[in-house]
Please model this.
Amino acid sequence: MIFWTFCPKYQTTCVVSRIYMSEKRKKVTSILKLMNNENAEIIPIVSGDISEYVKENSEMSVPEQVAVLPLRGNVFFPNVLMPISAGRTKSIQLIKDAYKSKEIIAVISQKDDSDEPQQENMFSVGTFARVLEMITMPDDSIMVVLQGLDRLTLKEFTSSKPYWKGRCEQYTDGCKNVPEDAKIITSTLKDMYLNLLKLTPNLPPNALMGPKNIKDSYYLLNFVASQLNISVKDKQELLELNDFSLRMEKVIAYLGQEIKEAELKLQIQKKASSEMDKQQREYYLNQQLKTIQEELGGSPTEQTINELKERAKTKIWSKQVQETFEKELKKLSTMHPSSPDYSNELNYLGFILDLPWNNIKEDDYNIEQARKSLDKDHYGLEKVKERIIEYLAVLKLNKNISSPILCLVGPPGVGKTSLGRSIANAMNREYIRIALGGVNDESEIRGHRRTYIGAMPGRILKSLSKVKHSNPVFVLDEIDKITGMSINGDPAAAMLEVLDPEQNTAFHDNYLDIDYDLSKIMFIATANSLANVHPALIDRMEIIDISGYIEEEKIQIAKRHLIPNNLKANGLQKSQISISDKLVSYLINNYTRESGVRRLDKVLSKIARHRVVEIAEEKEYIKAIQQKDLQIILGLPTAYHELRMEEDAIGVVTGLAWTEVGGEILFVEASVSRGKGNINLTGNLGNVMKESASLAFEYLKSNAEIWNLEETIFDNKDLNVHCPEGATPKDGPSAGITMFIAMLSAFSGRKVRHNFAMTGEITLRGSVLPVGGIKEKILAAKRAKITDIILSEKNRRDIEDINSIYLEGLTFHYVREIAEIPKIVLL
Model:
């Protein structure tokens, strides 16, 4: 720190020194008080040209022995005035003697802070000095002002009592030789030092006048060097430098570093002060705001808490939920509204209040009315409707029964999803639907823990918070599209707790962190196939198969639902358009290829929009849509359905296949050619289907004598088996008997009846096993004009379970062994 004072005697600013040790500040203050006294002797070191004063006081004669003053923690430079504090007995005695005798002394810095320094603990280069002023302090220590003269070299110590004395030689400072071009670099040094002083906090207003008045380059260099906040070792190196330019470069480098540090400290102080001011300002404004709010009738926080309490009074919840709510509400009341946790806590309490908890909506137990409501919205689907009616009947007698968990499985477009809303209407319940397709995060079901930023409840409870009652119809759409285990957990496993009647009475959502009862909810899951559904999930659900519609059913659905809905959606009246059953049948067979009616609905919508355009353009039109108009409206037919063979053929057999869009017929072609007994399979067949072909061929070879085939025929003939439409992948075991009959027909030369179709898996022992998708396959057979179908005996129960309307015009042949089939189908 730089201490400056104004001398009344000389009317000038005087410098005392830059002090680093805080314990010396009180002593320096005493000096300043003394120097401000009009009778005090003042040494004006920066008033006018210092060179004259230095010249008057630097002349000296070096005695043979010089008193040596060890200096701790600093280095004394020539021509510089420095106040120092002396506390050691030897040092005090030395200063008193030198002050009285006016003799010069040697000031040499110590390498350490020891109280009894030895010669090896002291530097060899120091500065001759003269004692200008001495003050005895109240604690008997001495404060003294020294005037630096010239450098010295300590040769040896000659005495240590009563204080150190030694033989010293004058070591003239080479830095006195100031170059002629030093004016610029000296000006730079002065500007940098003044800049450092400006960065010093709490500096007196007249503090900058002293350095500005220093004109002597040599003195300015030593003065700034003495003020540097660097180690004693680094200062001693500056003192020992003999070249002005080198010392100047070093001092400027150290000074630049100090300026950077001072600027950084100032920035930190300003930032800290700014933050403090900001906090004080916010506190002051908040206090004012609080006062204003109290005058207006309370703060928003209190109003919010009161609103939450009022909402809680209407809730029907358990003691545990009540205690949790009150605990979280108390926590909210202690938070500041600007705190990030405040909004999180408020959202959590709001979510608790949004949930319907035990608020149950009364069901409509009118069975007849429910049946009419279901029939009004959907045609067919008798199994599903009957299950809903059963549940309503049981619920009428026992209101504590758990809701059923249904899973509707069937191809797209058969009405699985829309059936959920129809059931909700029939039961007078609220309706919720969530799409599970593509869900790959367990947190989507269970929610996130509130410790995470942006935590949210799971989709189950989040959807429930949007309704007013806790017993809605909840549709879990596309449950077969949930992805399996990943880095984000297994959402399918999380669904186990939701759909298990034994567990969902206490469903635990991570965000809510309170058990919630889901047992009153009627869950209806939908899926296109159970192949990708977790087996444990299947076990917890009641599976209801919804197969595709036959043509007659599609016509009825179009008449009752699709056509009226499209007329209403497009603003048409019945008097403006007419679509006959024959035209709908043509649309089904030539413009749609599906088990459901979604594509048919789009086709009918296109026809309705075309009629709207005709009306808008005021064109003449015929009310009834004609078949010839369809090519203009819809373009060329886009659907192609395979039909049965027109005549019997060798090696061509009609099979039945199941696809995601319903059933299809599948031709299997077989031919033999000269070769070495190889079998070639083509048509984009999967591994299971290839295995069925190999199995059929091996069974045929091992039982050739049954069908009067020579065993040698398999050695010199190659068998080629092909399934048309090679771009379409095909797989599964149900084509086993179809491939066998095609191979037997090819080798025996016997024709296959063209009106027959078949499906069944075979074994190496010759047994015929049952297969699935029977209803869809039957629909495909009817569509292809097939009259006879061969099935496994074990599939008889599936046929008996099918509505007789689907079986009209079909004859079924049930077999247990492969050997029974050729008698039925081969000529």
User: Anything to note?
Assistant: Residues 244-296 form the longest helix (53 residues).
